[in-house]
Design goal:
It catalyses: L-seryl-[protein] + ATP = O-phospho-L-seryl-[protein] + ADP + H(+); L-threonyl-[protein] + ATP = O-phospho-L-threonyl-[protein] + ADP + H(+). The protein is of the alpha+beta class. Helix content is 25%, strand content 26%. The chain is built from 17 helices and 44 strands. The chain has a six-stranded mixed β-sheet, with helices on both faces. Strands 3, 4, 5, 6 and 7 form a five-stranded antiparallel β-sheet that branches. It has a five-stranded antiparallel β-sheet with strand order 30-36-33-34-32.
């Protein structure tokens, strides 16, 4: 009975052998494949791989001759035929083509019968698709004639070996099988080298990675355990990727020289067990170079990405991507290797310096650099001047500033070798057009208004010209309307919104202002520039105003008074106190401002009641934005030179507005020889006022740092009555608290601030950066606003060596 029971098992075994035998049957002479129909590929016995026709992605009428993973969803291609052994393009054929093994050769012909491709061997007896992914041609005597492993495209597989003289070409795109921008060569001298290549010529630039080996018998090996290494004839091995990354039985493996010039090893879950542990997709398990963005730096060529773009690296996925900077766009969104182009008209070289400063901004880019393309270098120089020199230079696309050496580089297009990396320590400023139109000259707005009015009257008259009576009535109405409009305009000129910046400030008579202030009776403020009185205009709205009487000016200052007032009059921002008009009568010089109902920041901060933290935050941000406008965004840069809480006013909604800006030139001209021309207030004065160096906008940045600490802590910078001696000077104390990790001491008793301690710490760090003794170490107000908003990371500020000069 036992033999009878065994018989079915034997039959099953014989059936399996017969089936396997048929699967192992060689591809014989006379066999053929077509792109469409039932016979499109020859499959390996395991069905893991197939050789035949694959439709090109996005083009159903074009087919590759290829080898691919047959069991996975996306049918990943690992080999494809090229026009020749050193061909630049993949072979693509239309429907109706045929691949045939006949007359001792394998030949691919198009529908017209023209031969498109052959492997270049004869006397072929049969072919076979192996389970390793290798498609081979054999002679009638069983010798190997040709194999896909011997002419790789961009991928190698386990058990594949690349001998001397073998090259892997990256694809141009994932969906474009033409030779791409990178080559991996097993060179005849025994060196394994990666090169950037020019498309389409294939010219090789300087290598970006090499094994630095020598030996006639060198080979690149992808062994059956999943390890990839470069071996020399003496047995020395250099690991290319990690050994033993995943079980060969549970995962498919491949190593591809990708479109970005990185040689990556991938795995894909094959067994049920692996699919439970991993998503069904290719996962990069190792890569060389590990960060391609850092690897390539060539004087010729664009680098990893196209010209004017930059490379970013995602370490968690071993993947890179290319991005365009602000105001630039990809030339071709699908072919990003072509690079980026400015999304604006290039700067006209006929622009004068003033126009260029008005039309362009310098935008900082964090952690991005284009290390080459320099054409000009300055040293020593400060950051502000570095930006200005680029703005006024029509060739300059970006400026790079290095604080450590006070060095500035100007770069022109095209920019190459761009990268985003945490190792970038230099500050890059990108020149872009201003987002809003530059302000017009004082008279342009009024001229445009008159021109529009003229066209309106003429057009209306012509429209109704057929009726004299109608014309007469219409013209009468229009003339009356024009009269009323002009009259109303004169009355309401002070109330015009900021976007009418083309109109000049109103000219007041002294008697008008004397009447408006009740004989200059109610004093609401005093300072170095003069006394401020409250007043009220005799207009329909009974507009409240603040009138500043400027101290008697020297003759030189009187000459520039009107020029400076016109400059201030063109300066409109929601965080600046608006100049409504002025008086220039005899020896009297008065400025008329909008009235701020909630007084100065000084009274607001240092009263008995501590203001809410959220309100203080908004006030600090408003002051920063106002200074940013004065320094970088208005028509003509204005350095305040006397920033302090007295000169920061609060409107009815507690919006912070900077006052007394634009007066520095007038007051400096009025200094005596014994005053050392120091402008500012004790406790807020930057150290450079006491040194023989030029004054820049960084003096305001220093003062802002002091004010920011006062806003955070709700106390004055210098308090001689402070309980503890170390707390007397706020800037000292804040620095000590920051270094000791006790920021909470600065806002003790302020529950709202304590609950937002991270923001408190950020504000204090920004303040300490602003308080650096060396002006070039202080950030610009643009950087300050970014740091306050949390838009950029804040590095630990250097420990200021002294604040003594700020107390002079």
């Amino acid at each position: 009975m036992a033999p009878l029971l065994f018989l079915p098992l034997l039959q099953l075994f014989l059936l399996y052998c017969i089936t396997s035998s048929h699967a192992q049957i060689n591809i014989t002479i006379g066999s053929s494949l077509t792109p469409q129909g039932l016979n499109t590929s020859w499959v390996s016995t395991s069905a893991d791989f197939a050789f035949g026709f694959r439709a090109v992605e996005g083009n159903s009428s074009s087919y590759l001759l290829a080898v691919w993973f047959n069991k996975i969803t996306n049918k990943t291609v690992v080999w494809y035929a090229k026009t020749s052994s050193s061909g630049q393009e993949a072979v693509q054929v239309p429907p109706g083509s045929i691949l045939k093994l006949a007359d001792g050769a394998l030949s691919l012909r198009d529908p017209s019968g023209n031969e498109v491709w052959n492997p270049g061997v004869t006397d072929v007896g049969y072919a076979r698709m192996f389970n390793t992914g290798n498609f081979m041609l054999f002679g009638t005597n069983g010798t190997t004639k040709w194999e896909t492993f011997g002419s790789p495209s961009d991928t190698i597989l386990p058990t594949q070996v690349l001998p001397l003289g073998t090259t892997l070409h990256s694809r141009l795109l994932v969906t474009d099988y033409s030779n791409g921008r990178f080559q991996l060569n097993v060179q005849e001298d025994g060196n394994l080298v990666m090169y950037p290549a020019a498309v389409p010529s294939g010219y090789l630039y300087d290598p970006y990675w090499a094994s630095n080996t020598v030996g006639n018998g060198s080979r690149l090996v992808f062994n059956e355990t999943g390890r990839i290494y470069f071996t020399l004839i003496n047995g020395t091995q250099t690991n290319i990727t990690s050994a033993g990354v995943d079980s060969m039985g549970d995962f498919f493996h491949r190593a591809t020289f990708d479109t970005d010039g990185v040689f990556r090893q991938y795995v894909y879950p094959k067994s049920t067990k692996a699919r439970h542990l991993s998503q069904e997709e290719w996962r990069a398990v190792d890569a060389l170079p590990h960060n391609i963005c850092r690897a390539i730096l060539n004087w010729v060529g664009s680098g990893v990405c196209g010209f004017n773009s930059y490379c970013t690296f995602d370490g968690s996925k071993n993947m890179t991507s290319c991005l365009c900077p602000q105001s630039y766009k990809f030339i071709d969104d699908e072919k990003k290797y072509k690079g980026c182009t400015p999304d604006f008209e290039p700067q006209n070289c006929e622009l004068d310096e003033t126009a260029a400063m008005m039309q362009y901004d310098m935008t900082p880019i964090d952690r991005v650099d284009w290390p080459l393309s320099d054409y000009e270098q300055y040293s020593p120089i400060d950051e502000t001047e570095c930006q200005r020199l680029c703005k006024i230079d029509c060739f300059c696309a970006i400026a790079v500033f290095e604080k450590a050496t006070n060095t500035c580089w100007k770069k022109k297009l095209p920019l190459s070798n761009g990268k985003m990396d945490d190792t970038v320590s230099r500050t890059v400023f990108l020149k872009v057009p201003r987002s809003t139109n530059s302000q017009s000259v004082l008279s342009s707005g009024y001229s445009k208004w008159k021109e529009d009015r003229k066209h309106w009257i003429l057009g209306s008259s012509l429209l109704f010209g057929s009726s004299l009576l109608v014309n007469f009535i219409l013209i009468s109405i229009l003339l009356f309307g024009t009269y009323c409009s002009i009259t109303s305009r004169k009355k309401m000129q002070l109330l015009e919104p900021p976007n009418n910046s083309g109109l000049p400030p109103k000219i007041f008579t002294y008697s008008e202002l004397e009447k408006a202030t009740g004989g200059f009776r109610e004093v609401i403020g005093t300072g170095a520039s003069g006394v401020v009185y409250k007043g009220q205009l005799q207009d329909e709205c009974r507009t409240n105003i603040a009138v500043k009487k400027i101290e008697k000016l020297q003759h030189e200052a009187e000459k520039v008074f009107l020029v400076e007032v016109q400059t201030i009059g063109q300066t409109f921002h929601r965080n600046l106190v608006r100049l409504l008009g002025f008086c220039n009568e005899g020896t009297e010089r008065l400025l008329v401002y909008e009235f701020m109902g909630n007084g100065s920041l000084n009274g607001f901060l240092f009263s008995d009641t501590r203001p809410d933290w959220s309100l203080r935050v908004q006030i600090a941000l408003g002051v920063a934005r106002g200074l940013l406008y004065l320094h970088e965004e208005c028509n003509k840069q204005i350095i305040h030179c006397d920033m302090k809480p007295h000169n920061i006013l609060l409107d009815d909604n507690f919006a912070s507005k900077i006052s007394d800006f634009g007066l520095a030139k007038l007051l400096l001209l009025n200094q005596t020889q014994t005053s050392t021309c120091i402008r500012g207030t004790r406790g807020y004065v930057a150290p450079e006022w006491f040194k023989n160096i030029g004054i820049t906008s960084k003096v305001d940045v220093y003062s802002f740092g002091v004010i920011l600490l006062e806003i955070v802590c709700c106390r004055k910078n210098v308090e001689l009555e402070a309980g503890e001696e170390e707390q007397t000077i706020l800037t000292y104390w804040a620095n000590d608290c920051y270094r000791c990790g006790r920021i909470d001491l600065l806002v003790q008793g302020d529950g709202e601030a304590i609950s937002n301690i991270k923001k408190v710490e950020r504000f204090v760090a920004v303040a300490l950066w602003c308080l650096q003794e060396e002006p070039t170490m202080r950030p610009t107000m643009h950087k300050v606003t970014q740091m306050l908003d949390g838009a950029v990371q804040i590095p630990t500020p250097p420990d200021p060596s002294s604040y003594i000069s700020s107390l002079a």
